[in-house]
């Protein structure tokens, strides 16, 4: 979807400033700067500001490729550039420094697939990522990527639930709900090998799948429209009603994805929460014990069960927290503390989510 002329001009001016800024670093200049995310794919959101004019909505997510990602001068330059361009454009501009070799280690990730298949080169050779095209195959995206996507968006729904209880941050709630609407269909396409980088193409593929709940297809359509043209925040009552529907569908999608990934049928959230196996069987048990000891010594607590990777406890606890009503006692056992209410639960969950997301 093309940007309005005013935004396209602002984006091109931003690109020119970026090239001039980093070229001036001389020997510290990066090999290439590539814009990923929605605007890199030509799918950035177009909002309407208070004056009725089109405005940017999403962040600008950059990948800054360099053989020396730890170069102090480059790191300082990136930080200053992020601040200056964020202030000029009115959205967050973020750049991640990494060597191109890092991509070779992540061919099964959704990030790798999206970046290689759809991006905008801003500085450096226009075909900088061309060598990776043969590796970018939808059916190679690991199932854990679908799990991670739903876990992140489910966490957003939990934060929305806590905010709705207090009747605050409704615009953030609206945005988290819209992201969840997209994630359901995207996750199911991923485990079917049908994921694609462009959101409208994913919508078409969802419609062609005969065994996917029609509600998921419709929610994906709504999420697509919000992504491209963000809508005004609805009333508290509407958001609360939407929250209940999204939570129900999220749980069903999450259990389907995890059943596929782990080769174990989870029929209910309770079966998943109390599953005796490891949610991350590929991670050695001794490492998980060491992480629990480290967390206890440095962070004053640890997550349970300690034989599994700590993210597993967060994933289990999320189903307890999204239940109606939330099972704070069970979530507290997993998070290693007593949870008196949803606000305290959100604080503890956010803390551990920051460590293991």
What is the N-to-C order of secondary-structure elements (H for helix, E for strand)? HEHEEEHEHEHHHHHHHHHH
Q: If classified by CATH, what would the architecture of the largest domain be?
A: 2-Layer Sandwich
Q: Please, how many domains? A: 3
Helix content range of the residues, please?
55-70%
**Strands across the major sheet, in which order?**
5-4-1-6
Based on secondary structure, the structural category is alpha+beta
CATH topology of the largest domain: Beta Polymerase, domain 2
Low-confidence stretches: none
Protein name: Protein-PII uridylyltransferase N-terminal domain-containing protein
Organism: Thalassobacterium sedimentorum
Describe the model:
The structure is a single chain. This protein is of the alpha+beta class and 357 residues long. It has helices at residues 5-23, 37-40, 72-89, 110-117, 143-166, 170-191, 199-208, 214-228, 236-262, 269-273, 285-299, 310-322, 328-335, 342-356; strands at residues 32-35, 46-48, 54-56, 60-65, 93-98, 120-123. It has a 4-stranded mixed sheet with strand order 5-4-1-6. A two-stranded antiparallel sheet has the order 2-3. Strand 2 and strand 3 (54-56) form a beta hairpin. The longest helix is centred in the C-terminal third of the chain and has 27 residues, at 236-262. This is Protein-PII uridylyltransferase N-terminal domain-containing protein.
Name the descriptors:
four-stranded mixed beta sheet, single chain, Beta Polymerase, domain 2, 357 residues, two-stranded antiparallel ribbon, Protein-PII uridylyltransferase N-terminal domain-containing protein, alpha+beta, 6 strands, 3 domains, Four Helix Bundle (Hemerythrin (Met), subunit A)
């Amino acid at each position: 979807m093309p940007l309005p002329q005013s935004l396209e001009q602002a984006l091109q001016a931003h690109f020119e400033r970026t090239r001039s800024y980093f070229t001036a670093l001389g020997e510290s200049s990066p090999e290439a700067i590539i814009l990923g995310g929605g605007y890199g794919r030509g799918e950035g959101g177009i909002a309407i500001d208070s004056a009725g004019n089109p405005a940017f909505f999403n962040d600008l997510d950059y990948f800054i490729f360099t053989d020396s990602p730890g170069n102090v001068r480059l790191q300082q330059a990136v930080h200053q550039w992020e601040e200056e361009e964020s202030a000029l454009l009115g959205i967050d501009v973020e750049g991640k420094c990494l060597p191109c070799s890092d991509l070779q280690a992540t061919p099964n990730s959704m990030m790798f697939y999206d970046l290689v298949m759809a991006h905008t080169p801003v500085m450096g050779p226009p075909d900088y990522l061309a060598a990776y095209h043969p590796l970018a195959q939808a059916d190679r995206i690991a199932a854990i990527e679908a799990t991670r996507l739903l876990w992140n968006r489910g966490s957003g729904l939990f934060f929305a639930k806590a905010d709705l209880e207090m009747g605050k941050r409704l615009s953030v709630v609206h945005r988290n709900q819209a992201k969840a609407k997209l994630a359901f269909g995207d996750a199911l396409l991923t485990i079917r090998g049908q994921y694609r980088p462009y959101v409208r193409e994913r919508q078409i593929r969802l419609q062609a799948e005969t065994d996917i709940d029609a509600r998921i297809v419709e929610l994906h359509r709504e999420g697509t429209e919000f992504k491209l043209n963000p809508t005004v925040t609805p009333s508290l009552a509407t958001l609360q009603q939407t929250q209940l529907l999204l939570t129900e569908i999220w749980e069903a999608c999450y259990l389907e994805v995890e059943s596929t990934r782990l080769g174990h049928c989870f029929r209910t959230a309770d079966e998943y929460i109390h599953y005796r196996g490891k949610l991350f069987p590929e991670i050695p048990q001794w490492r998980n014990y060491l992480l629990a000891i480290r967390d206890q010594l440095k962070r004053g607590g640890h997550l349970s069960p300690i034989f599994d990777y700590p993210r597993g406890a967060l994933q289990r606890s999320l189903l307890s927290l999204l239940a109606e009503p939330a099972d704070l006692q069970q979530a507290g056992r997993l998070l290693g503390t007593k949870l008196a209410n949803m606000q305290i639960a959100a604080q503890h969950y956010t803390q551990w989510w920051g460590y293991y997301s």
